[in-house]
Write a structure and sequence with these properties.
Elements lengths: L8 H8 L4 E2 L9 E2 H23 L8 H20 L8 H17 L5 H8 L16 H34 L9 H43 L1 H40 L4
Antiparallel strand pairs: 1-2
Helix pairs in contact: 1-7, 2-4, 3-4, 4-8, 6-7, 6-8, 7-8
Length: about 270
């Protein structure tokens, strides 16, 4: 922390959970979490740059290590999409799934960087007194991602069924086309449409936020006493290893829900 105030667990955690916002005060709904946007954009550039670097050096002969790794990743994503979507997956859905998976993994992986090391740069060099490095621990980011998938889902539903067919499905599925059932059908579909982006975003946010809190508690333990340092390092290493599974699993779940939602949108009830 940059201030000279007495360090307590609550002040330490509150400090590292503060966003770098613009405008800093009084922005209300339109306040922008600059750190989440900047880090998310940076991870997007890193992901695209890595894939471009691999493609640029790709060969039709014996692949190198990085090309083999990316080819395995491509095959894994393609197999997952093929198992859910039965249309032309290579046109849009498989590339979208790859993009979502890689981008989410990179944003989740920012949780492995010790926050105090990042603070040395953001506070000591850049003079920023608040900076959260994990975009997916920000509900605004995860909801924006889920809302983008939701809009794509509606777009593909209308593209596959036509506007009239989509509206007809809203009022006539799943209980039938009798006019007396229209209110029940509409209510059922509205609940489904509203719940999808909420559950999609909250699942990723909740897991990454919890992981962020646990890391902060472990760093606080490590700073308390020499014995706390030993236990903090051991527990931190164990949690970091387990967190690798969480980072990959949450990215995989987010990607698969994206594929499932868009696939379901192109199918009828």
């Amino acid at each position: 922390m940059a201030s000279g105030a007495a360090l307590t667990p609550s002040s330490y955690i509150a400090h590292h959970l503060s966003f770098l916002q613009a405008p800093a005060e009084g922005g209300g709904f339109w306040t922008l979490n600059v750190d989440s946007v900047a880090t998310g954009a940076l991870m997007g550039v890193v992901g695209l740059g890595f894939l471009w670097w691999v493609v640029r050096g790709a060969t039709s002969g014996v692949p190198g290590k990085r090309q083999a790794f990316v080819e395995l990743l491509f095959d894994f994503i393609d197999d997952q999409v093929r198992g859910v979507f039965h249309g032309n997956r290579n046109r849009f859905l498989a590339p979208l799934a790859l993009t979502v998976f890689v981008w989410t993994v990179l944003m989740n992986s920012m949780d492995f960087l010790p926050v105090d090391w990042i603070g040395l740069l953001t506070e000591g060099v850049l003079r920023l007194h608040a900076f959260r490095p994990v975009p997916t621990a920000d509900i605004n980011v995860t909801f924006a991602l889920a809302l983008s998938v939701w809009l794509l889902m509606i777009f593909h539903a209308i593209s596959a069924k036509g506007l009239g067919g989509w509206i007809h499905e809203l009022f006539c599925a799943p209980f039938g086309s009798n006019p007396l059932l229209w209110p029940a059908n509409l209510a059922f579909n509205l609940v489904e449409y509203v719940s999808k982006p909420l559950s999609h975003s909250m699942r990723l946010y909740g897991n990454m936020y919890a992981g962020e809190i646990i890391f902060l508690l472990l760093w606080m333990l490590a700073a308390a006493h020499w014995a706390g340092t030993v236990f903090g390092v051991v527990l931190g290493l164990g949690w970091a290893i387990f967190h690798i599974l969480i980072v990959l699993l949450q990215a995989y779940i987010f990607m698969m829900l994206t594929v499932v939602y868009i696939s379901m949108a192109q199918e009828g009830h």
